[in-house]
Amino acid sequence: MNKILNKLNNTYPIKLIICDMAGTTINESGIVYETLYETIKKYGLIVNKNDISKWYGKNKYEVLNNYSDNKKLQLKLHNHFDKTLTEKYFFDNNIKLIHHKLPDLFNGLRKNGIKIALNTGYGVQIQENIIKRFNMNEFIDNYISSEQVKFGRPHPYMINRLMAMNNINNPYNVIKIGDTENDVLEGLNAECGLSIGVLSGSGNIYDLSKSHLIMNSVMDININV
Predict the structure, then answer these.
(1) 41 neighbors 222 (Cβ within 8 angstroms)
(2) Residue 148 near residue 47 (C-beta atoms within 8 A)
C-alpha cells in the first residue's frame, strides 16, 4: 500500500495530509453518533437507528437540523448535543488518541516538510477542546471545523480552506484520510492526490470502497522522502 503513497510522492510531492478526527486520529468508540441519536429522540423527533450510518463524517449540526425546520428547536438540539457530548467526552474520560505513537508519526512527517491538518464534523468548541486535551497543537499545523465553512462533507470546502491556510495550490499535493464514506468523498470532490479510507472508526471496507486506498489505521502511513 505504501508503494502507492511513494509513487504519488515521486510525481506530486506530498505537502499536506488532512486527517479526520473521530475514528481516525481520536478513538471515541462511536459516542458522537450515540449522542446524536439520543438527542433527537429526547425531543420527540422521529429517528431510526438505521439512520445513524448516514451521519458518519457529516457536520453534526446539519444532521440535527435535518430532523426539524424549527429554528428554536434546532438551537435546543445543538445545545443539548454539545452539553451531553462534552460530558461524555471530557468528564468520563471516554476518548483517547487512536494510538499513543500518533504524535511521533505526525512529527516525523512534519520534520520532512509535510504539514498535518485536522478537519471534522464537530463544532468548533468541541474540536478545540479535544485538541487542547491531547496537546495536539504540538504535532499538527492547523485545523478546521465544518462549522466554519458553508457546507461540511462530502463538500470539499474544509479541504479547500486548509489548502489556502497552508499556501498549497495543487490538490494533488494533498492526501485526505478518514474513516467514513463522506471523508472519502470529501477527498475525491477536492481532487486530492489520494483519498484514503481507514478501518479504525465507523466505516467498513464496503463504506470505504470509493477510496483510492484502504488502510487499517492512519498509523500505517509510511512515506519515503
Answers:
(1) no
(2) no
